[in-house]
Structure formats: C-alpha cells, structure tokens
Amino acid sequence: MNALDTIGQLISITLVFSTALIFTGLGGVFSERSGVVNIGLEGLMIAGAFGAAVFTDQAIQGGMKHGAPWIGLLAGLVLGLVVSLLHAVATITFKADQTIVGVVINILAAGLAIYLTKSLYEGSGQTPTLEYVFNPVAIPGLSDIPLLGKGIFTAYPTTYIVIGVVILSYIVLYRTTFGLRLRAVGEHPSSADTVGISVTKYRYIGVMLSGALAGLGGATIALTTTSNFAHNTISGQGFIAIAAVIFGKWNPLGVAGAAIFFGMAQALRNWAQLFEWSHHIPNEFFYMLPYLLTLLVLAGAVGRSAAPGALGEPYDPAKR
Amino acid sequence: MNTMRKIFDKSSFLVPLVAIILGLICGALAMLAGGYDPWMAYTALVKKLFGSPYDIGEAIRAITPLIFTGIAVAFAFRTGLFNIGADGQFLMGMTGATIVGVTLDLPWYIHAPLAIIVGGLFGGLWAALAGYLKAARGVNEVISSIMLNWIALFLSNYIVGTYLVMEGQQKSKPVHESALVSIKWLSESMGNARMHWGTLIALIGVVVFYVILWRTKKGYELRAVGLNPNAALYAGMNVNRTIITSMFISGVFAGLGGVFEILGVFGYQTVMAASWGYGFDGIAVALLGGNTPIGVFLGAVLFGGLSYGSAGMSFGANVPPEIVRIVIGSIIFFVASHGLVKFFLKPFMARRSNKGKSEGGSAL
C-alpha cells in the first residue's frame, strides 16, 4: 500500500464521518443563531437514525431497492423535525430552560427509539441489517484525477448533498433577509421585535431547521456507516457537533471545517487499525481520540468565541 | 383547611406531582401505541418493587447511587453550573476505589476509608478539570464534561483491562475483603439483597449538601455566584475559584456514588461498553427535586424505584424496560416546562378559586 493510497483512504473515511457532523452542526447553527441552545442534537440524531433505518427497512420489504435509502433519508429528516417541535414548544412558547429541555430530548429520543425498535422487531434491540443503503458514487472525470481524486470524489450521495447544504446555509444566513432576521432574533430579540420581526416565528423556524438537519445527520450514519439502527448507532456525535458549532464560531463554513476536523479524529481511529504499528497502542486511546481532541481544541488556541447575544434566554416581551 | 389549601396551591409542590402523573400517562400512551397493557405493566412494576424483602433491599441499592449523583448535579446547579459530567465522575470514583481495593492490602479500618477517599477525590478532580477549563479557558462546562464522560469511560476501561484485570475475563480482580463496605447481617435478613454502608453515607451526603450551601460562608458565596456572577464579582468574590470549588465538591458526590457501587455492591469493576447512566439520571433527580435536599432525596427514591421496578415490567408484562426512560424523560420535560403544566392546571385552578368565591358569597 503506498502512502498516497492510504491518505486517500483517510480522506474518504473522514468524509463519511464528517458528513453527519456537518449536517448536525449546521442544525445547531440555525437553532443557536436564533437564540435557542440545542443540547438535544444527540437526541435529534437518534430520531433521524431510527427513522431512516425503520423506513428504509419498510421500503425494502415493500419491494424497493436502491430507492429505499432515499425514503429513509427523508424519514430521518421528518422525524428529527417532529421531535424538535417538542423542543420548540417547550422552550419558545412555554419558556422552559433550553438546556434542560435539550437533555430531555436526548433521554426521550433514546428511550423511545429503543422501545419502538423492540416493539417493532419482536424484542430485538436493533433493526435488521439493511440490504440496500447508500453506496459511494464516483464523479466521472474528477475521480480519475491521479493521487487523491479517488479519495475525495468517490463519496456517498449524502456527502455531495451536505456540500450543497453548507453553501446554501451560508447564503441563507448572510445574504438573505430571512438570515438577517434570524440572526437579529438571536442577537437582540427586543430590537427585532420592535421593528416588527416575530421572535417566536423565527425561533420556531431555527429550532425546526436544527431538527431536520440533525435528523439528516443521524440518517446519514444509519445509511452509510452502520447499515442499521441500534442503541450505540449514535454515541456522542451530537455532542461533538455542538462542539463543532462553538469551534466554528456559529458560521456554516467554520462549522463545516470544524466538523471535518472532528470527523478526521474519528476516522483516524478506524484508519490506524489498518497498520501494524497501531496494534501496540491500546484501542482505548483511539476511542478517546475524538473526545480528547475536541476538548483540547476548545481549551486551546480557539479562544473565547462569541456566542449569539441572546443565546439561552427565553424571550419575554414584558421585560423589554 | 386554609393552610392545606396554601400547601396545595404552592406550585413548587404541585408541579412535580402533576409532572409525575403526566409522565406516567405518557408512558401508558407509549405502551398502548406499542400494543402493551399499561395497567398490567405498572402493576408488575409495583409488584416487583414491593414483592419481597429482597426486592425492597435491592430497590434501596438502586436508589443509593442516584442520591449521590442527584446531590452532585443539584449542588452544581445551585452554583450556576450544569454538571452533565456526573457520569464520568461516577466512573472515575469507581476506578479510584477499584485501584485502591485491588492493589493495596491494609487493615479494614484503613483500607475501606482510603478506598472511599481516593474514589471521592478521583471524581472531584475529574469534575474540577471541567471547572478549571471553564474558569481559565472559558470552555462551556456542558461540552467539556460530556467529552470528559467519554474519556473517563475509555480511561477506566483501559486501567481495569490492563492493570487490574482478572486473567481471561473482562473485569478486574476482586476487591480485597478489607475494603468492602457491605452490611452482612442486613443482607442476610433481606434475602441476600446487596445492602451496604454507602446508603447511610448518601443520606449524610444530603445533610452535608444542605449544610455546605446554607450554613457556611463558602456556601453563601457559591450560591451568590450561582444567582448572579456579576454581582458576586462586584462584591469581591473570586468567581473563577468558586467555579472550580463547586465542580470539585459536586464531583466528589458523584465519585462517591461510583465508589459504593464497587465497594458495596459488586466488589469488582467490569470493562464497560457504555456507562450505567447514573450521572444522567442524577440530572433528572436534581431537576425533579428542585435542587433542594429533601427534593433530591425523594426524586432519587422515585427514579430508583421506577428503574428497579422496570425489570418487573419486562418479565411480568413483556414490556421493554426502556419505557421507564420515556416516563422519566417526560417527567423532567413537564417539570422543566412548568409553564405547560400550569397551562394544563389553569382550568382546574380557576374553577376552584371561583368555587371558593361563590361559597364565600353564599355564606354572606
């Protein structure tokens, strides 16, 4: 195996892991930019992964083949969105503590997903392995580029989608009236309210977008990495996505960069197993790596990043 | 009569109660949706809980770690911190106790206390790390302690699996007899339920929690920082040091929870695929108890009881035990969104107060 081949491999594993983190991280951006902390991204990802696995399985049983994962992807999006509504109603309409509700979303989603899986699949704690999931698609031409072309341009459809979503998110946030208003609501809700922008409406949209995107993130993992849903399908990626939001300073491009960084930390774990030298290092240290790097990065050179001004505060017009 | 009404009108008491009922209803709805019989399931739960002296003893065993993690999380909440890392601190406490229990050979009156202290310190220092990162580097304690939870899991597994391992098994060598804190005579009289001194220490912990926060100068500072860090800073308090102190104390509580699982219950530590989640349940316990000493104790009893009884549901009514997570999640949801609960209660409250008025009117 030559060096460039292995680097290409690292890149392609990195892209697989990063895709889910980018989706979810972008979700976090929309929610937090509107002023709502979303600790529940992990739970929303669980909802997405569960929905994707179950609906893909149903579609396959219904006779679909390569179209089935697309049904699953859509189901993941919808389920994430539905669960995030719970967050929105509690924190925006009823002004509940955002962090606590996020924790609740995590507990509820994990409990519900396993409970429903066991109910649907006769006591088994996981869905059957899906026969049809996403397969890497090579972009003709680009993937033939010598050296690194194969690593970068032979990726899952979800990876291509996420690249589009990153660009779209950036444009929406910084180049449209909608984005300006969303940011205004998160930065200074009372001013936004004064000029006639509905704080409630924009925060609902922000949280629901986070649900849809985190749902896509979870679905991505089920449909590209694990090929089923089990209790450990989502194990901490939602929290790493939150770290990516902070590391990326609430900017879609920054968050994508941070997510790729964390994706690489996860990929290193799998990638290193390919080599002889890694067998001398205890497995546990590879498992620790993504979390350790996240911690070091947050503590290190990044410095204090400025969160949206009104992040975490329920908006109460009476206190204006 | 009037005082009774006052007590019941206090939403601080009413909201958790209504939340518990709504939570149980949510669980029942989920069971109906899954095609199970909720009545049978809840009956099986209660039966499991009070079925025999053994079950009562084991339920107390299940409640004990939740008291520890509950006061750990509540303590941090009181000082304005969200210690979501109690889970990792719990694991570090377990590991500290196992290291001392397995590697050292000492007389019992030194060995057991030493194992407890070391485990507590492990938990405290692990939490203080998150406190330091917040105080010195401005890292949100929620993120850092979540990362520390995972690191604690793998670090514990590494220590147990490499240095303390029993040959050919995925667990540590047994902790020496001299470090164990089980209560033999009580266990024997309760059908060999695993009773231990940790339960008593958990109750003392509840008192300590109260005394530190409400009866000491340091506790006053901790609460002041929790209520308004800017005001506390202006009053000359060292906010950064307070953050680290608070996390340390919180972590000691969580760590002790782990310590007694090793020294009182199992006597060895396994290599775990995932943590037991006592730390996360501690969040639920603290929230339900409104971060008050008595409330946390009652919250731990409720959640420990539900979790232990859930085993009965899967045997007795064939319901997946995860249903209890749904119940617990819903309960915290309703406690957190008390606005929502009050919204549900409004019609009842209004009717009652109207009734009161009309009755008063007729008397005149």
Automatic annotation (TrEMBL), chain B:
Localization, UniProt: Cell membrane
Statement: the UniProt record of this protein carries the keyword Transmembrane helix: yes
Transmembrane segments: 12-36, 56-77, 89-110, 116-135, 147-166, 195-213, 243-266, 278-303, 323-345
Domain of life the protein comes from: Bacteria
Main location: membrane
CDD domains for the chain: TM_PBP1_transp_TpRbsC_like
Pfam families, sorted: BPD_transp_2
Matching InterPro entries: ABC_transp_permease
Membrane topology type: Multi-pass membrane protein
UniProtKB keywords: Cell membrane, Membrane, Transmembrane, Transmembrane helix
Protein name according to UniProt: ABC transporter permease
